[in-house]
What does this fold into?
Amino acid sequence: MTSPITRLAPSPTGSLHIGNICTFLLNWVIAKQRNWKIVFRMEDIDGPRKKSIAIEESIDILRWIGIDWDGEIVIQSDRIDAHQEMLHTLIEKDLAYHCSLTRKELNTVLSAPHETFSSKDPIYRPANVRLHNSSLPNIQTNWRFVSERATHVVHDELYGAQICDTSHDFVIWTKDNSPTYQLAVVADDHYQHITHIIRGNDLLQSAAWQELLFEAMGWETPTWIHLPLVIGSDGKRVAKRHGDSRISTYRSRGVSPERIIGLIAMWTHAQINPIPMSLEKFLHSFDLDKLQPNNIVFTKEDETWLLD
Ligand code: GLU
It folds into this structure.
């Protein structure tokens, strides 16, 4: 049996906020409790222009909280050749095709009467993929994956069986000549021998597309644990409109890692009241079985306590 490996895969999109840290912390704790190896991948393909600063900042914040990992950091943008190889394999298998439809044209196609659309393959898919691919357009185009299933069931450790819509041929390579998140993440998870993926529930639908890609490549699919997101009192995902919930800001305002961990411990039922908690104590107190699948609300009172 292969030994379990999970990964921390932040995107260097500026500074990590309380929601990101909650996910990474739970990922780390679950892995440590189960004696899994934890590797690290920086998903910088769509990152900001000043990538190296954002990368350094993300690493610094994770280390400040106390999160560690095994081995060298893999930088996703260093692996473009491997991503390209995956695209070529899918093309050879007639499972990818170039598609020059613009977003607008595609929307028109997709908003066509439902009967037309659901009764057969996506109507933008060429009838003969191999023949279609044998002549390449002279402009760069997107490449789409041939999704052979209308729905796909993802089995998640927290959310159970989830029926996902996989009826659209999703883009795996963009006309800017770069891999999409869906393709890159699968190529890299396979490369890093990832057996268990723990991340926010906003990526549950992506798990279905990713499973199709794993299967198409003949690679083993990982086990999934999607986690509740941290949302504001308005029900929306924590973002700038809720104030500045970046960890770097809290840190500069004197908030300790123990306070952040204490709040996450309360959110995840590892303690009843918000009391600062060490990483070591959280490691022993957290219990995935007590975690509720509904999203976590970051209230004004929580923030006041954090800054107290
Ligand atoms: N890089 C993504 C993020 O920071 C995570 C992708 C994944 O875990 O598959 O949200």
User: Anything to note?
Assistant: The chain has two domains: 5-72+228-307, 81-181. The radius of gyration is 21 Å. The CA atoms of residues 136 and 269 lie 55 Å apart. DSSP finds twelve helices and twelve strands in the chain.
